[in-house]
Every structure is written in C-alpha cells, then in structure tokens.
Design brief:
homodimer; 245 residues; alpha/beta; Rossmann fold; DNA polymerase, domain 1; 5-stranded parallel sheet; two-stranded antiparallel ribbon; 7 strands; 10% strand; globular
Chain lengths: 245, 245
C-alpha cells in the first residue's frame, strides 16, 4: 500500500519514532531501578515519584541547549546530572553514594523495556517503510536501548548527530536529509503532541500514538491528539495497520 | 570472549565496516547494470572496464572535499557526476541519454550484493559487539544498500554525518564518539590498507579482510595486509572466529 499523508500530499517513505514513552515504558523500569538502588543503599523514597521527578528534569535540562546558552551535551550526561538534582530535591547529597552506583542507576535509561506492541509493530512497518528512532537520546544510548529492547532499525538518529534537541526544526529536517528524503516523505510517530507539533512545523507527516499510561494511572497530558496529525493510533501495531502493513 | 586489540591495549566493543569492496562486490553488479544499460541504449562498451573506470573516479572525486576546496556533497551525487565523466572518457555526451536512465544506472550503487560470507559473519560478530558500517557512502545510500543486501546493523554511519570522507581523522573519531566509546574500543574492518592506516592514525583497532577479487582477477592492490593491523582475515566469518564468535 502507498500511504500519502494528507498534511503534506506526499507519499510517506520513512517512519521515524520518538522513543521514551512512545516505544519504551520508562516509568516502570526506572522506578524498579530506583527501588532496587534505595534498598541497597539503605535510603527510602517512593520509586514511582522518584522516576517522575527524574523525568520532570528532562525538558528543563535540554532548554539551555536548545536556546544555545549551553553547548550540546548528551542525554546520558543530562540523565546523570538530573539524578543529582533529584537527590538534592530529596535532601540527599549525591556524595552520600559511591559514584559508580549512581552511574549504574543512571544507565537504567539504556535498559528500558518496550511496550507490548512495539517489536511486532516496527517489524510490520519496516516491511513497507524505512524505520528509525529520532530521539533526544544520543546515538550510543539509542543503540544500547535498541539492542536491549530488541528493536530492529534501518537507521538510528540520535540528537548528537544534530547537536541539539527536539523540537528544534533542524533535528527533524536533518533526519529527512540524512534519509535522502524531503521532509514531507518522512512521518514522525510520537506519543507527545509537542514533538508532533515540531515535526509538523518542519514539514513532516505526523502520527500520534496514544500512551495513556506513560506517566502512570493519573496521567493528565497527551491523552489524545490535540493537533491535526495525519494519523492517530493506539499502538505501533495499530499504526502498522493504518499504514497498510 | 573478550578481544583486546594489541595496537590499543583496549577491549574492542564495536566493529565498524568499510562497505564497497569489503562487504559488497561492486564490480560484478555495476558491470551487469552497465551491460544492461548499453543494450537498452544501443551503445557498446566493455561493462567491466566501464565499472572499473567509474570506480576509478571515486578517490579523485572525494579529494577536493577532503581538502576543503569543495563543500560536502554526498557519494550519491559524486557517483552521478562521475558517471558523466566516464561517458565523456568514452566520447559519449551524457545528453545522448534520458537523464532518468542515467539516474537509474547511477543508483546501482544502492543495489549491490554482499560477498557470500558477509550476512552470516556480521550476525555472528553482532552477538558480541556493536556493528555498523562506516562508509564514504551517505546515510541514505547505506540504508538502501543494507536493506537490499540484508545486512543487520546496530547503527549506520554515513559520511554525511561527519561532512567529509575517510581517511580524514574526524570520520573515525566521530564514529567512536557517536558510539560513546574511545577510539581504541572501536575496530575498523576493511579490505583497503589506506582506510586501515587512517583508522590506526585516529587511534582505532584494525582488521584487514582480504578481497583479492574486488577489482577482478588481475587485481594488484590490497592483496594482503601491508601494515601492523591487529587482525587479518579472509572473510567476515573468519573475522567473527578471530573475535571469538
């Protein structure tokens, strides 16, 4: 099947995927790692709140890099810095712990499990389209995560290749350029409306994938598509069907 | 098995591969395409000589980009320009032909077949190491070639990511950086001594893979390792064995 995106009137040839939240369930596995760490270190915290607080630092930590007031550093680096911030919020000095143990905890972002529909869905979409992650993760983090999660890609597009973070326009347009495609021939699939807004502004086709449990049972954001995205799906397998595979 | 490269005294964690000649047999398939084109267009040329002449433009066409006297353009673009050059050498004006047919002929570099040992060898090496192509091809060309040839990668590293061509040092070191590794933790595998010399100068580990038929039965160059490379193999499966997989 040939899928032509209404927003671009172009045939989609590649589908690129946001990763954290869209493909992998970061909250469950980060909470499990935080719980294990707390047990071993003899501290107490609510592991899901800890995971939420860590993730809450994600956007603020990228903001100065997007704005150009800080040079590019990788998401691996930001995750590690943000871990110290979260410990500080809990009134715990980072130097309470062996730095190696904090590094190990921080690397949990490289070992997340995919949502149940992802592996099958990507393989089906790959039968008809080029597929790759387009993530704010750096390439090495994406490679480690993809191996761990068993994701099969044609190409891996990390933020370090572009030197800034989504939703900066040059990330989306740079991805299309590396694929040798026009922006309108590339579809971003994401569980986050702001990411899709960035992609649409850069001329890409868009697909919303609902992940109503990304932030747990009380999630308030991104419960539904809030823009004129080309497709809306409940899962990657659902998206595969909508794309004809 | 843990493989420690003698040249770097570091454990190798990723093996990256030169592509044209090392993994895919460009001469046979380019000659076949040139033969088919000549038949359809009603011209006559020796298809293997045509393929050799086309490939002979490869290094000269990259030289001004390496030197910085020409801005980066992709290998897809150079292949197409070099095709016109080769036609000119034969005394045939490029405008003799429909440009679409020349574009189609030029895209043969995206549809080459791997040497017989490659698919199995890469899958075996991937069991213990990160694997990816590090090629002077652009990403889109590598993605198309890898899908056509059935090559499974963790990451795809095209020259467009680095904005210049091997053997410039920043290509090799940039690849290690994207993989989150030190240069000495990365091994380049290639059938070309000059590529391995560039990798070694950049601090990478090195493996020579002999491809004595790359240029046909009369090949004079790269018949054997001419530097102190860490490993010398007859095939990618042989390299897998030497790396313990």
């Amino acid at each position: 099947m040939i899928y032509v995106a209404p927003s671009t009137s172009q045939r989609v040839r590649a589908v690129i995927f946001d990763t954290f939240g869209t493909l992998v369930d970061w909250r469950t596995d980060v909470a499990a790692a935080a719980d294990e760490f707390a047990d071993a270190a003899g501290v107490e915290w609510d592991p899901r709140s800890f995971a939420d607080a860590w993730r809450a630092q994600y956007q603020p930590s990228m903001a100065p890099i997007r704005a150009g007031s800080r040079g590019y550093v990788t998401l691996d680096t930001l995750h590690r810095e943000n871990l110290d911030t979260v410990l500080g919020q809990l009134g715990i000095a980072a130097n309470t712990f062996d730095p190696k143990h904090l590094d190990e905890l921080s690397s949990v972002w490289r070992r997340l499990r995919p949502w149940a529909d992802v592996t099958e869905g990507l393989d089906r979409i790959r039968a008809g389209y080029l597929v790759g992650p387009l993530s704010n993760a750096n390439t090495a983090l994406l490679v480690a995560l993809s191996r761990h999660a068993g994701l099969r890609w044609d190409v891996v597009l990390g933020s370090d290749v572009f030197g800034t973070y989504k939703p900066e326009r040059r990330v989306y347009q740079g991805a299309a350029s590396l694929l040798g495609l026009e922006p309108g021939e590339v579809m971003l699939a994401a569980a986050h409306n702001d990411d899709l807004a960035g992609a649409a502004a850069a001329g890409l086709a868009t697909a919303f994938i609902a992940r109503p449990l990304e932030h747990g049972p009380d999630q308030q954001t991104d419960l539904s598509a809030d823009g004129p995205w080309d497709l809306t799906a409940d899962s990657v397998t659902d998206l595969a069907s909508l794309l004809g595979y």
